[in-house]
Amino acid sequence: MELKEALGQLDTMDDSLWTKEGLPAVDKVAELMGRDVTRKEITDAAPHFTRASGFQEEEQSDAEEEGVREGRSQEVEEYLSDLPMVPAEFNALLQKVGPSELPTFDAILSDQLAGLLKDIEELEELKRRVKVNLATVRARIQHETPDKSNQQAIMDYIAAQNKNRAEKAQRARKVAATVDLKDLDPRAPIDRAFARKKGRGTQRPVR
Predict the structure, then answer these.
(1) How many CB atoms within 10 Å of residue 108?
(2) Is a pLDDT exceeding 50 seen at residue 162?
(3) Which band of pLDDT confidence, cut at 50, 70 and 90, is reported for residue 127?
(4) Cα–Cα distance measured from residue 84 to residue 93, given in angstroms and rounded to the nearest whole number
(5) CA-CA distance, 142 to 162, in Å (whole number)?
(6) Which end of the chain, N or C, is less surrounded by CB atoms within 10 Å?
(7) Torsion angle, CA of 156/161/164/166, rounded to 10 degrees?
């Protein structure tokens, strides 16, 4: 069963089949179709269908649209069949158009321009948001992970060397604090050996 056929079976006297706005109840239409149905499906199949007018307004709208299509020339249909033409192609097409159809093209082009300007405004807003967000990310990168310049790298190296020297000096002071200076003998080992001898041979030979 087609969706329009199911809509045609709805009893206009049965309140349970319609919403307060006079639209078909989605769950009732789904029962007739034997499957799930969405409001969008119903609207797409019958945009003007209501409890009060049924398909009358729908048929009238379709007839009006058909009349509009029948009133269009081949040139208008050709222009509307694709994206806006490049000027050279459009000028060639316009040569086939009589003066009476120029207002039609004027209206079509005006609508297209208005739509494009609206799209441009929306794109500009999206562009602005992306630029702001990108600037925020880059600011965090610069603040939290800054790049080191060559001069900064040299300064960091010097600071590291100074830190190492300070740590060595501190360790040396700790070792020196455990040694009694009175126990230290500044003489060379050979002089200390001769000093332990008594009598002859207590002096180191001198050439």
Answers:
(1) 15
(2) yes
(3) very high
(4) 12
(5) 28
(6) C
(7) -100
Number of H-type helices and E-type strands within the chain: 9, 0
Q: How many CA atoms lie within 13 A of 73 on its CB side?
A: 15
CA dist 51 and 173 (Å) reads 100
Cβ proximity of 36 and 66 under 8 Å: no
Q: How far apart are CA 26 and CA 201, in angstroms?
A: 126
Residues ≥6 apart with Cβ < 8 Å to 10: 17, 18, 24, 28, 29, 32, 51
Sign of the alpha-carbon torsion through 100, 105, 106, 108: positive
Share of the chain above pLDDT 70, in %: 70
Instruction: Write down the pLDDT at residue 130.
Output: 92
Q: Are 87 and 58 in contact (CB under 8 A)?
A: no
Q: What is the pLDDT of residue 188?
A: 67
> Closest Cα partner for 57 from 23, 27, 82, 26?
23
**What is the reported pTM?**
0.35
HEC letters along 12-51: CCCHHHECCCCCECHHHHHHHHCCCCCHHHHHHHCCCCEC
Please give the radius of gyration of the chain, using alpha carbons only, rounded to the nearest integer.
48
CA atoms within 13 A on the CB side of 150: 0
Token duo for residue 72: 């269009």
Rounded-to-integer distance, Cα 7 and Cα 37, Å: 12
